[in-house]
Design a protein that fits this description.
The protein is α+β, with helices and mostly antiparallel strands. It has one domain. Helix content is 46%, strand content 24%. Strands 1-2-3-4 form a four-stranded antiparallel sheet. The radius of gyration is 21 Å and the shape is globular. The N and C termini lie far apart (41 Å).
């Protein structure tokens, strides 16, 4: 009886670890594909806007829960100027959130709860 319980425990423990390893591998692959696509989109955007921005960077994130690839673009026209930040769905080319330069009211303030909520919803899990 004790041996049977031990075997069931081991199957449950190691079976879960094997399944989790598979899901981690899948997540890593999705993250890699997302970042490859984001890199290409970012490169194309910078080429289209050549010379417009002096400071620019991006971060990519595959959100498994939403099954979407997001990119956080950060840019400024000159060093020392306020940063503009955009959250973009890479595959749908859809803007999810925006804050920074050009904001006409507080809802686009990078410190606003609305922006922070958008950032958390898309770029974290």
């Amino acid at each position: 009886m004790k041996i049977t319980i031990f075997i069931i425990f081991c199957i449950a423990l190691f079976g879960g670890a094997i399944a989790n390893a598979g899901s981690n591998k899948e997540k890593d692959e999705l993250q890699d594909k997302c970042c490859q696509k984001a890199a290409q989109v970012f490169k194309n955007e910078m080429a289209k806007n050549a010379g417009a921005f002096r400071v620019s960077n991006y971060y990519c994130h595959f959100n498994k829960q939403l099954n979407k690839c997001f990119m956080l673009e950060i840019f400024a026209k000159k060093r020392g100027e306020p940063l503009t930040k955009m959250i973009v769905d890479v595959n749908e080319n859809r803007l999810y959130g925006f804050c920074g330069e050009g904001a006409v009211d507080n809802k686009y303030d990078c410190e606003s709860p609305m922006w922070k909520s958008s950032l958390k919803e898309t770029m974290e899990e």
